[in-house]
Amino acid sequence: MSNMPNQTPPFVNNQTLSLIITNRLADLHVDSFSDADWSLLAGRAHAEGVAPLVYWTFSKAGKLSSLPQSARNILRLAYAGTWMQNQKNFKELEILARRFHQADIPVVVLKGVCFALTIYPDIGLRPMGDMDILVPLSKLSEAVQIAKSFGYEDSKPEASPGLNDLLSHHACLQKSGPQSLTLEIHNSLVADKAFTYAVPVNWFWEQTEPLEVSSSQKQFEHLRMLTPTAQVLYAASHAMLQHGGQNAPLRWFYDLDRLIRFYDGRMDWGLLLSQAAKFEWGSALEAALSQTCAYFDTPVPEGVRARLSESPDRHRDLVALKQIRPATHILEERQKLLSLNWYGRFRLVLALAFPSPAYMRWRYQFKNSWLLPAWYLFRWGVILKDVIRTVCYAAVDFVNRHPKRKSDELRN
């Protein structure tokens, strides 16, 4: 008997998950799923950040008991864990918001924090890895110091002095405890300074309004959020330009679907198109909306999609490239390098090859300083190994894309 490798069933994918979380269960033959299939599907739902939504859908439909126990446990724990973590996040946000207001620092809540409080019917449905807020650049240092007074610390050392100021558009802080909290204080959105697709943040500040909480009894005075139109543009560009389509979990596309449906009467499609063209983010917007519609049949006007497809911008190739999962770490870094200007590329390459001693100690968790040279040698060895893997991959890819040249060379 041959031992055949286990293969994932073709329906254990994001398309199946999208049907489930939008309660289109009639389009699925769920009765034919085995216990193993459900476990795989629950695991994928967790990885894509939609496990609480799958739990919610089956629970509301009264069909949770039809799932095998193992899958129910994964989904139930995902919902309960998200609910408890978000409760802690929002309690922390209330404290910080009060202190920021006292310091006269305007705050705009972004992404998961905003979505969980507004467009989702329950705070346990939207997992978030961190809390994202936007403050004016002139208030960034003060906001960071206030957060640090509440126990937050820099999440990691800089790989090179001044690199964060050049390549990062936020300060990333972490608060240790039984459940650690991560706070990202942004001073701009999507990208800053060295990135080719960076834009001024002024327009986003003009597109803010008071936060209106719908999914929780909590009230957050003095906090603001982006208008629905600005939220769609930011969410799309954050997914496709900053992170790339291959790194975008299903929950980010569901966020876009929820935004468009929840604020259906307030979406200013004309403003969205004109601002996307002005920022040259149209390619990112088109890619994000196309994928969202493919998953959820989102009601995006056909005229909007047609205008986006007819108006390519200079970032189209980058957006397309970032939808391909890199085969090696060097190819992954190449995607980032292509997003930067020449000075940014130089600084990033230098930081990758010669990171600061503080960063090396954080990255490799060694205690004795005399081990530092050995860890640099180890790092360079890993980089060399990846260079060889990248060259081999590129050679194989070239041969596969040029079969005629390969056959001619063999005949000769």
Considering the chains and any ligands shown, give keywords for the structure:
412 residues; alpha/beta; Beta Polymerase, domain 2; 7-stranded mixed sheet
Structural features, described:
- This protein is of the alpha/beta class.
- It has 19 helices and 7 strands.
- The chain folds into 3 domains: 14-80, no CATH class; 84-321, Beta Polymerase, domain 2 (2-Layer Sandwich); 329-411, no CATH class.
- Helix content is 56%, strand content 7%.
- It has a 7-stranded mixed beta sheet with strand order 3-4-5-2-1-7-6.
- A hairpin with a 5-residue loop joins strand 4 and strand 5.
- The chain is globular and about 60 Å long.
Average pLDDT, to the nearest integer?
91
Query: What is the annotated CATH architecture of the largest domain?
Result: 2-Layer Sandwich
CATH class annotation of the largest domain: Alpha Beta
- Helix percentage: 55-70%
Give me the CATH fold name of the largest domain: Beta Polymerase, domain 2
Structural class by SSE content: alpha/beta
Task: Tally the structural domains.
Answer: 3
What is the approximate shape? globular
Q: In percent terms, what proportion of residues is strand?
A: 5-15%
User: H/E series, N to C?
Assistant: HHHHEHEHEHEEHEEHHHHHHHHHHH
How many H/I helices?
Answer: 19
**Amino-to-carboxy terminus distance:** 43 Å
Kindly report the spatial arrangement of strands forming the biggest sheet.
Answer: 3-4-5-2-1-7-6
Count of individual beta strands: 7
Whole-angstrom Rg: 23 Å
Uncertain regions: pLDDT < 50 for 5+ in a row? Answer: 1-5
Q: Could you give a short account of the major beta sheet? A: 7 strands, mixed
